[in-house]
Amino acid sequence: MSSENQVIxxxxxVDNDKWAIQFNDCSVISFEQAQQYxxxxxxxxxxxxxxxxxxxxxxIRNKPIRVYSQPSKASEYKEILKFSxxxxxxxxxxxxxxxxxxxxxxxxxxxxxxxHLSSSDKAFANFYSGLQDVKGKKEHDAYYLxx
Length: 147
Description:
Shape: globular
Helix content: 10-25%
Low-confidence stretches: none
Number of strands: 12
Largest sheet: 3 strands, antiparallel
Radius of gyration: 16 Å
């Protein structure tokens, strides 16, 4: 495997928490404090059995993420609304985008291209070395299926 494709870490929540929605009652139709989830998927309308109300939106909802061809804001960029490697199961367990390279503390190469984390982005997301913690996924999925 070339170093171009070797995972060195991932972009995750600022508190390094898992993307594992803890739910007890799916009759809840609003999920407050959803901005950290919306940062990764700008079109997010629901998380597991929770639905985001229009008044739960934030300044980042539907605002595209710029992904650059090089680690420079002067380089060409495309806009995405969701990281291609972000996956969220029906139970609400998510897998964050992997990072393949990093330049200083602000530039990160993900599958989509280079992402620049500004200070406002770092209120929601951060870089973590190593692999994502998937402990608890089996139990989380089983709980979801049984409730």
